[in-house]
Amino acid sequence: MGSSSNSEWSSLPVDILLLILDHLVPMRDYLGFSEVCSQWKHAVCKKLEDLRFNRRRHCRLHQKLPLVLVSFRIGTFCLYDVVQRKSVWEFQLKQGDWRFEGCSHGWLILLHLRTHEVMLYNPFSGKSIHLPPIGGKSIPDFSAAYEKKCVLSADPDHNSNFVLMMMSRDSERRAAFFRSGDEDWTYVKNLKCLEDIACVDRIFYLLEWQNVVFSWDGFELRWIPSRVDRRSLDRYFTESRLDRFVRDEFLVESPEGDLLRVEKTKTGGFLVYKLVWFSRNSRWEEVESLGDVALFLGHNNSISVMASDFPGCRPNSIYFFSQSNKYPSPLDRKVYVFSLNDRTFTRLSPIILRPVLWI
Questions:
Q1: I want to staple 321 with a disulfide (CB 3.0 to 4.6 A). Which of 253, 333, 349, 353 is the partner?
Q2: φ and ψ at 172, to 5 degrees?
Q3: How far apart are CA 305 and CA 294, in angstroms?
Q4: Considering Cα of 54, then 60, then 61, then 63, what sign does the dihedral take?
Q5: Cα 34-3-32 angle, rounded to 5 deg
Q6: Which secondary-structure segment (H or E) carries 118?
């Protein structure tokens, strides 16, 4: 009886399985669904292909070229196009004791250095949203002295039920979140030593040291199994990390919805990996070419676009900030582009723009 029942489930038509998948949360639920049998795994793979196609179409219709937020004088900021090398938008903001911490969905995230209050500010509409202070009794370790990485789950203008996650770049490197409607911030428990965070389809992904990645849907933290699991960390360090001397790591969503991990090595080059979920052994797979994709990386925000949609944007390339040796201040940086074709660098800003972040 049990065997017959299992056979009936495994023989469900793919169209029916696709309808079921429409009611599940992408990635979070798909992994368990795909493990039922080969037929269900086939349905998940087909669903993912459909999602990738729709995502590419959506990107072409709605994506914008990332701009650099630049401060030329006190209270005056502009958005600078590094591809066309021109300013495209200027706005006034009395910064005072507010420090820029990041940008997500077009909203700037600012932290007040004395009160620790958090503010979301839209430079295009002038709208602001004030959130409770971070770093109080509930989040004692989030000192204002350290830079933060900030990611929104959705555009607050389009979805009032948003979540803002912050990762502190202090020695603990923990994450905390604020859910709209809450009265205070909350730690993401049991995680430390984070390298980066990203959000794909309202699911947050948190990259811990040694490439261990977790997903968090706002309620439950899940470890994503991959070839580099906790039991093989020592071996991975010996075989892979030791000869690369990785200096920085970034998580970024590709235009197709894949989760990419980018390593910046001590020599200044980049290595790109894609998280391959639905195989017998999920793993980080090295990507030799990004194709038509360009990545814009930053400690405060990372974005991907289809380069062919923007004249002058270089495909198969990585745009990033690099601190000048002559000017050690963290504000004195230049914009470079790294080509994965020939692994060469080109400086895009002839002068020091003092960029803050991508928007």
A1: 333
A2: -80, -35
A3: 6
A4: positive
A5: 15
A6: strand 118-121
Q: Cα(271)–Cα(285) distance, rounded to whole angstroms?
A: 11
Residues constituting the chain: 359
- Name 338's Cβ contacts closer than 8 Å, sequence gap at least 6: 269, 270, 317, 318, 319, 320, 344, 345
Phi/psi-derived region of residue 229, left when phi > 0, alpha when psi is between -120 and 50, beta in every other case: beta
Q: Give pLDDT, residue 322.
A: 76
CA-to-CA separations, 278 to 16, 31, 121, 154, 226, in angstroms, rounded:
20, 7, 39, 26, 11
Structure confidence at residue 242 as a pLDDT band (50, 70, 90): very low
End-to-end CA distance of the chain: 58
351: DSSP letter: S
pTM above 0.85, yes or no: no
Q: What is the 3-state secondary structure (H, E, C) of 142-179?
A: CCCCCCEEEEECCCCCCCCCCEEEEEECCCCCCEEEEE
The pLDDT tens digits of the residues spanning 180-237 come to 999 888 888 878 788 899 988 788 999 887 667 888 877 778 777 666 433 334 434 4
**Tens digits of per-residue pLDDT, 210-221?**
667 888 877 778
d(Cα 205, Cα 197) in Å, to the nearest integer? Answer: 6
Summarised one tens digit per residue, pLDDT across range 87-144 is 887 888 877 888 888 899 989 999 888 888 999 999 888 899 999 988 766 666 666 6
> 25, 49, 29, 35: which is closest to 280 by C-alpha?
35
Which positions ≥6 away from 230 have C-beta within 8 Å?
212
CA neighbours within 13 Å on the CB side: how many for 99?
17
Query: Beta-carbon neighbour count of residue 242 at 10 Å?
Result: 10
